[in-house]
């Protein structure tokens, strides 16, 4: 089976364009290829499939085999993959992608004819906790929701970008936060019946933040596009940042834009690492 490894800011996935959607047990394959010792090594598996309502359809499976609604870094790479594999016309400057979080429009940027980056219309954020879902009684926005996890006091801002996010703001470098310990406890907390992505964010100024993320189903990753989009929306909602920010993550920087209404727009790179044959 031919597989392609790609990444956006180190958030890496294995890409396939299967002839039939039912030809494999995708959750099991995702667990196997994602293993960084016995597989290829990745944060998950992404399928490029035909769509009746868009140029291409994306299915994404996390490293634990669970299926996610969307992936911001993954969708940029998916569009690059679709163009380079001939799934969409090679001269397209805009590609629509069907996801479980709705249809997303992706504008591509080229360098010497090669797709190197993309700007994604991530859709509007929702601050209604029912959209995550989260087991809270208020209708939202939910800001500074108190939650104590293993002795650590959190104040969570809840955002849905078609997938669920819980954001905790800190005054110091997020690298100092015990994300390895607290992340999985937040992800699996009963407050979030479908689990949650957990972000730790430091605001550096009105146009700049730094954050780390524990991703639902994958653990700590170097970057997350939907997380960065949620952080941009939450930070502007709280009056901490303006309409445009640079989000510094361990894997690199994303540019986020949200004017307080409508869609969040995310811009970042897309890199093809290698193609290989999967035998096991």
TrEMBL record:
Its recorded reaction(s) are: (2S,6S)-2,6-diaminopimelate = meso-2,6-diaminopimelate
The residues that hold substrate are 11, 62, 72-73, 163, 197, 215-216, 225-226
Please give the InterPro entries that the UniProt record associates with this protein: DAP_epimerase_AS, DAP_epimerase_DapF
- Which keywords label this protein? Amino-acid biosynthesis, Cytoplasm, Isomerase, Lysine biosynthesis
Any single GO CC term annotated in Swiss-Prot or TrEMBL for this entry: cytosol
Compartments where located: Cytoplasm
Q: Where are the catalytic residues?
A: 71 (proton donor), 71
Quick check: keyword Isomerase in the entry? yes
Named in its record, the pathway it takes part in is: Amino-acid biosynthesis; L-lysine biosynthesis via DAP pathway; DL-2,6-diaminopimelate from LL-2,6-diaminopimelate: step 1/1
Q: Which SUPFAM superfamilies match?
A: Diaminopimelate epimerase-like
One of its GO biological process terms is: lysine biosynthetic process via diaminopimelate
Q: According to its UniProt record, what is one Pfam family this protein matches?
A: DAP_epimerase
EC annotation? 5.1.1.7
Q: Show the GO MF annotations.
A: diaminopimelate epimerase activity
Q: What class of enzyme is it?
A: isomerase
- Site feature (Could be important to modulate the pK values of the two catalytic cysteine residues) residues: 165, 215
Tell me if Nucleotide-binding is a UniProt keyword of this record: no
The record's HAMAP family line, in alphabetical order, gives:
DAP_epimerase
Q: Spell out the family assignment given in the record's similarity comment.
A: Belongs to the diaminopimelate epimerase family.
Describe, as the record does, how this protein assembles with itself and its partners: Homodimer.
**Function of this protein?**
Catalyzes the stereoinversion of LL-2,6-diaminopimelate (L,L-DAP) to meso-diaminopimelate (meso-DAP), a precursor of L-lysine and an essential component of the bacterial peptidoglycan.
Indicate what this protein is called per its UniProt record.
Answer: Diaminopimelate epimerase
Organism (species): Tepidiforma thermophila (strain KCTC 52669 / CGMCC 1.13589 / G233)
Lineage of source species: Bacteria, Bacillati, Chloroflexota, Tepidiformia, Tepidiformales
Q: Gene for this protein?
A: dapF
């Amino acid at each position: 089976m031919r597989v392609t490894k790609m990444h956006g800011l180190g958030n890496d996935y294995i890409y396939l364009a299967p002839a039939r959607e039912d030809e494999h047990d995708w959750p099991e394959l995702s667990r196997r290829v994602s293993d960084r010792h016995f597989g290829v090594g990745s944060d998950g598996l992404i399928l490029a499939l035909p769509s009746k309502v868009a140029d291409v359809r994306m299915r994404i499976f996390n490293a634990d085999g669970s299926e996610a609604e969307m992936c911001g870094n993954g969708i940029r790479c998916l569009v690059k993959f679709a163009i380079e594999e001939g799934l969409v016309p090679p001269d397209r400057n805009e590609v629509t992608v069907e996801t479980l979080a709705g249809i997303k429009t992706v504008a591509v940027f080229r360098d010497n004819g090669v797709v190197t980056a993309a700007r994604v219309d991530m859709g509007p954020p929702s601050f209604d906790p029912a959209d995550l879902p989260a087991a809270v009684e208020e209708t939202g926005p939910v800001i500074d929701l108190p939650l104590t996890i293993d002795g650590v006091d959190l104040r969570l801002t809840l955002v849905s970008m078609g997938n669920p996010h819980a954001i905790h703001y800190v005054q110091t470098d997020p690298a100092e936060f015990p994300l390895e310990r607290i992340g999985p406890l937040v992800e699996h907390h009963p407050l979030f019946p479908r689990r949650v992505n957990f972000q730790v964010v430091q605001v550096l100024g009105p146009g700049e933040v730094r954050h780390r993320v524990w991703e639902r189903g994958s653990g700590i990753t170097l970057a997350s596009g939907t997380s960065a989009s949620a952080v941009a929306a939450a930070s502007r909602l709280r009056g901490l940042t303006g309409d445009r920010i640079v989000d510094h993550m361990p894997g690199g920087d994303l540019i986020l834009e949200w004017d307080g209404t409508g869609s969040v727009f995310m811009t970042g790179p897309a890199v093809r690492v290698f193609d290989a044959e999967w035998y096991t």
